[in-house]
Amino acid sequence: MDAGFGRIERWNEARGFGFLTPEHPQPGLPQRVFFHARDYDRRGARPIAGVRVRFMPQRQPDGRWGAIRVAAVADAARRHAARDGRTRSTAPPGSAIGPTGLWIATVGWLSLLGIASSAGRMSAGALVAFAGLNLLTFVAYAVDKQAAQRGRRRTPEIHLHLLELLGGWPAAGCAQQLLRHKRSKASYRRSYLAMSALHLLALTLWTFA
After folding, report:
1. Whole-model pTM above 0.90?
2. Which fold does the domain 4-90 belong to in CATH?
3. Which region among 56-60, 78-82, 94-98, 190-194 has the lowest average model confidence (pLDDT)?
4. Whole-angstrom Cα distance, residue 188 to residue 144?
5. Domain locations in the chain?
6. Dist CA 114 CA 91 (whole Å)
7. Mean pLDDT of the residues in the chain
């Protein structure tokens, strides 16, 4: 298969891999092509989303297509290298909420559930449902991460945010840190924090109403 051009769609610096989208897909080549850090020429721009690259498609041992000899195209490399210099010092943290913040928020959440239960406003079944929802949320993150690594169909972000809003946000925070997933996209982190805050606000109002 011939060399082609594309743009980096997603890059995970911590894990050392990413995906690119070919500009002109060739027969048999998927819309999203996996590539590893060892196959990226770092003499140009860093491998961040949006960088235009040249690459060579190659079959991987598992039979899937991957990209080797991935290199930033000269004009894009200059633009993104300059932008990288401006943004490196202000790069967002690796997760939406740090371990300490997540622990404090979760303790507060559990306290609210305890108060609601003691006041007779929440049944034991509801508490079990919250536990199950958090387990489901963690599994959903794990499945989405595996899909990302294998280039398969992803879980829509709105589905993950819905689970967070319903009360699965503690497990979502744990998954972001333990699985190193959904940590690099600033817009997603903001939405996660918004879903968590909305859930806590609603639970607080309902508990003390």
Report:
1. no
2. OB fold (Dihydrolipoamide Acetyltransferase, E2P) (2.40.50)
3. 78-82
4. 14
5. 4-90, 99-208
6. 38
7. 84
18 Cβ partners below 8 Å, 6+ apart?
Answer: 8, 9, 10, 11, 12, 34, 35, 47
Q: How many other C-beta atoms can be found within 10 angstroms of the C-beta atom of residue 174?
A: 18
3-state helix/strand/coil string of the chain: CCCEEEEEEEEECCCCEEEEEECCCCCCCCCCEEEEHHHEECCCCCCCCCCEEEEEEEECCCCCEEEEEEEECHHHHHHHHHHHHHHHHHCCCCCCCCHHHHHHHHHHHHHHHHHHHHCCCCCHHHHHHHHHHHHHHHHHHHHHHHHHHHCCCCCCHHHHHHHHHHHHHHHHHHHHHHCCCCCCCHHHHHHHHHHHHHHHHHHHHHHHC
Mean pLDDT of the 160-165 span: 97
157 backbone φψ class: left, alpha, beta (φ>0; ψ -120 to 50): alpha
Alpha carbon distance 84, 125 (integer Å): 50
pLDDT, mean of residues 99-108: 92
Q: How many CA atoms lie within 13 A of 47 on its CB side?
A: 28
Q: Which two tokens stand for residue 132?
A: 């199950």
At 29-60, the pLDDT tens digits run 788 888 888 888 877 667 888 888 888 888 88
Give residue 123's pLDDT. 94
- Euclidean distance between CA atoms 54 and 45, whole angstroms: 12
